[in-house]
Amino acid sequence: STRDLNALTDLDTYAASKDMATDVEQKGNRQMAVPMVFRTKNPAAVMVLGVISSEGHVMPPHFFEPKQRVNRRCTWRSSTLWPLEEVHFQKDTAPAHKANTVQAWLKENVPHFWDPQTWPSNSPDLNPCDYYL
Q1: Could you tell me one molecular function GO term of this UniProt entry (predicted)?
Q2: From the CB of residue 106, how many other CB atoms can be counted at a distance below 10 Å?
Q3: pTM, entire model
Q4: How far apart are CA 33 and CA 16, in angstroms?
Q5: Distances (CA, A) of 21 to 17, 25, 26, 61, 95
Q6: DSSP calls for 44-95
Q7: Domain coverage including residue 80
């Protein structure tokens, strides 16, 4: 018989102090050490647009201003990148990328793009920006 193998992975950001305090939790007659993880309340963040082609072309990164609402208006100029008729546009499934206004703009202006249902999650080969930038 054939067995299906499934693997679940999670890519997340964690912050921890080198001097991790230890909390002790009582479980029956044994004690388990549970490390305390300290997190920054408002960590520094940056929003950047990066484009990589399957042929190895890389667009210089575009950094957005802090607190800029990018999905309110699509300010993308196709001449900035290359002719979009030759491109299959793939973005991740961030909430701003799945917004109805963004999806409508992509359907109207980008001949080939991957909608949120087509996203190949957790694939280093198909998501190079998530794994190599």
Answers
A1: nucleic acid binding
A2: 19
A3: 0.46
A4: 16
A5: 9, 13, 16, 39, 35
A6: ----EEEEE-TTS-EEEEEEPPTT--GGGS----HHHH--GGG-EE-----H
A7: 69-132
Name the residue type at position 99. Answer: A
Model confidence band, residue 8 (pLDDT cutoffs 50, 70, 90)? very low
Per-residue model confidence as pLDDT tens digits over 11-46: 334 444 444 444 444 555 555 667 777 888 887 888
The total number of structural domains that make up the chain? 1
In a domain, residue 15? The reply is no
Handedness of CA 72, 108, 75, 48 (dihedral sign): positive
| pLDDT tens-digit map of 85-126 | 566 667 767 777 788 888 888 888 777 777 777 777 677 777
